[in-house]
């Protein structure tokens, strides 16, 4: 029984833009699935549809269900979401420790002192320097990579079943990207979470995912186990993506 089941999913913005069209997809508990494609392929729309974060202008067709949960998934509690720009997801006038604590306080009905202690533990888990001191800092005092680590700590604070990372590394430099991908992999493995990793970078996806779904023009053009997709892509579009990463085979081996 899958954790997440998507059937016939379509999303239209306004009257003219069909962002997704007829997507069928399952995600198992603890599975790591990457959604890749160029800008405008519909991959971020898929992530937001799963988390019920589509704007009011969007019209949704099809179904997003949670067979293993037996109910609608709750954002913050069942789903943790990490956005592309951590600065936009963090409140500039609240300390980062309090922002992480708030997630546990609200979603787990945890007393505030306990939530603050948990926040300190989570800031340590995401390997921020001097987490006890940094908990009192504000977002503008942190680097981009540090902000994204705080955002990840907040996303996992309530112990979600699914972590969605929507282009969570694209605003970072190459070295920090690799560090964040390694961090996500470790946290997902340690907590047994499923992962939906949205990226335009097939090399990053290949280092992280069990399976890769390739999107183009709102449709899923290919879905396969990572090793199979890298070794024998079916679609011309996937082959073109792979061709843009000559070192992908070595990178995949290093990430195994």
UniProtKB/TrEMBL annotation:
Subcellular location: Cell inner membrane
Membrane topology (UniProt): Peripheral membrane protein
Keywords in alphabetical order: ATP-binding, Cell membrane, Membrane, Nucleotide-binding, Transport
InterPro entries: AAA+_ATPase, ABC_Ni/Peptide_Import, ABC_transporter-like_ATP-bd, ABC_transporter-like_CS, P-loop_NTPase
Entry GO MF terms: ATP binding; ATP hydrolysis activity
The organism of origin for this protein: Aminobacter anthyllidis
Family classification: Belongs to the ABC transporter superfamily.
Pfam families: ABC_tran
Top-level taxon of origin: Bacteria
Keyword Electron transport recorded: no
Keyword ATP-binding: yes
Protein name: ABC transporter ATP-binding protein
Domain named ABC transporter: residues: 4-242
Gene Ontology terms: cellular component: plasma membrane
């Amino acid at each position: 029984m899958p954790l997440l089941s998507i059937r016939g999913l379509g999303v239209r913005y306004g009257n003219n833009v069909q962002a997704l069209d007829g997507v069928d997809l399952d995600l198992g508990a603890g599975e790591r699935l990457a959604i890749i494609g160029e800008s405008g392929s519909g991959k971020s729309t898929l992530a937001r549809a799963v988390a019920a974060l589509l704007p009011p202008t969007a019209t949704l067709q099809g179904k997003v269900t949670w067979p293993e949960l037996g109910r609608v998934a709750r954002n913050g509690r069942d789903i943790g979401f990490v956005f592309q720009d951590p600065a936009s997801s963090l409140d500039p006038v609240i300390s980062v420790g309090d922002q992480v604590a708030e997630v546990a306080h609200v979603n787990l009905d945890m007393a505030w002192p306990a939530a603050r202690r948990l926040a300190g533990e989570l800031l340590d888990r995401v390997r921020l320097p001097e987490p006890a001191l940094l908990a009192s800092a504000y977002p503008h005092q942190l680097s981009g990579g540090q902000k994204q680590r705080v955002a990840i700590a907040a996303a996992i604070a309530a112990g979600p079943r699914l972590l969605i990372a929507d282009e969570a590394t694209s605003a970072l430099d190459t070295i920090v990207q690799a560090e964040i991908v390694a961090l996500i992999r470790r946290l997902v493995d340690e907590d047994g979470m499923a992962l939906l990793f949205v990226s335009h970078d097939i090399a990053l996806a290949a280092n992280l995912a069990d399976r890769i779904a390739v999107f183009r023009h709102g449709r899923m053009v290919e879905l396969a186990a990572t090793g199979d997709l890298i070794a024998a892509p079916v679609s011309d579009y996937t082959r073109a993506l792979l061709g843009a990463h000559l070192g992908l085979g070595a990178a995949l081996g290093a990430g195994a």
